[in-house]
Amino acid sequence: MNTFGRSLRLTVFGSSHGPAIGCVLDGMPAGLEVDEEGIRQEMGLRRPQEGIGTPRKEEDEVNIISGVLDLRTTGAPITLMIENRDVDSSKYEQFRRLPRPGHADMPALIKYPNHDIRGGGQFSGRMTAPLVAAGALVRRILEEEDVHIGAFSRSIGDVTDHKGRGLEDSRFSRTLATRACEPDLDVAMRRSIEAAAQDGDSVGGVVECMIDGLPIGVGEPWFDSLESVLAHGMFSIPAVKGLEFGDGFKSAMSRGSQNNDPYRWHQGRIITRGNCHGGILGGMSTGMPVLMRAAFKPTPSISRKQDTVDLERLVDSEVTVQGRHDPCIVPRAVPVVEAVAILTVADLMMEGGFIAP
To answer: What is the CA radius of gyration of the chain?
Structure first.
């Protein structure tokens, strides 16, 4: 299904090279002020950066079709639409016969014989634009509850940021093209992307996201736990192939005495010394910052010749991908990760009674 959430439901529509893409957001409370400039800023963060992004230039102007009157939500479903204005479908028809390795082409064509192959259709990363628009709109709900969410590039290619980071770092990353937290890292990450592009190749990376200010107890047992629903949302983002919370896979190599975070009473509230658990225990928030990292695979669209199968003749073949593609999607994925985290947390807080519907 194309719908995510229970109390706050998001449904996406459209395709990469169709007339438009968008979403319907149902469950938003009435009377919430809509920050149009805030939406524009978030959409700007998703646009490709010169030299390290696709040449496709979409303005991504968000048109609010319903659910908002005089810049306040009415309580009715909110429809957000983004027109596709810079479309070139000329390079895609061959992929109906010669599916691109690493893309959804092959399973999509087998499952949906009339699949819209242009730009990847409904499976394209282009479909993340409505998520960012919806997240920008919902962010206001969380800010009123003093819940703040930020993300940044933890690694790109062979360049990794090894320092501990906080929300201020994620805010600063908004000023840098790669979404790194320091100018030196930005330069190194850019060089890694450019080197891959010069080789006709691509690189992936890791986006780290933190959620600060969650009250204790957000998350529902068993299958709507905070980790479960965040994972559901994050793995819906194209190119995400791994996710960890807190110490994640590192915890598998630790002892309990190392991995357990002792409780402390501090300034009128319970905290933990350390945050190996990443702010979640038993599928519920502990009041500590929620920390998670999403691993993004390298962009599958590369200009190198690749092996594939001719679906008409059922023989081995080769394919070369032409067109306009990102040599690395990580910088553009950072606002998407933030948006999905916002939508997930807002839905779970409404579901758990932390936010009035």
So the answer is: 21
- What dihedral do alpha carbons 68, 69, 71, 75 form, nearest 10°? -40
Model pLDDT, residue 278: 98
Q: pLDDT value at position 341?
A: 98
Annotate the chain with three-state secondary structure: CCEECCCCEEEEEECCCCCEEEEEEECCCCCCECCHHHHHHHHHHHCCCCCCCCCCCCCCCEEEEECEECCEECCCCEEEEEECCCCCCCCCHHHHCCCCCCCCHHHHHHHCCCCCCHHHHHHCHHHHHHHHHHHHHHHHHHHHCCCEEEEEEEEECCEECCCCCCHHHHHHHCCCCCCCCCHHHHHHHHHHHHHHHHCCCCCCEEEEEEEECCCCCCCECCCECHHHHHHHHHCCCCCEEEEEECCHHHHHHCCHHHHCCCEEEECCEEEECCCCCCCEECCEECCCCEEEEEEECCCCCCCCCEEEEECCCCEEEEECCCCCCCCCCHHHHHHHHHHHHHHHHHHHHHHCCCCCC
Which residue ranges in the chain fall short of pLDDT 70? 357
Q: Tokens 């890292």: give the residue.
A: 185
Residues of the chain above pLDDT 70, percent: 100
pLDDT of 145: 97
Considering only CA atoms, which of 347, 355, 351, 349 is closest in space to residue 25?
347
The pLDDT value recorded for residue 56 is 77
pLDDT the model gives residue 1? 81
Q: Which domains does the chain have, with CATH numbers?
A: 3-351 (3.60.150.10)
Query: What local confidence, expressed as pLDDT, does residue 356 receive?
Result: 80
- State residue 57's pLDDT score: 79
Residue 140, exposed/middle/buried by CB under 10 A (0-12, 13-18, 19+)?
middle
- pLDDT tens for residues 237-251? 999 999 999 999 999
Distance of alpha carbon 197 from alpha carbon 48, whole angstroms? 14
Q: What is the pTM of this model?
A: 0.96
CA-wise closest residue to 270 among 290, 257, 246, 287: 287
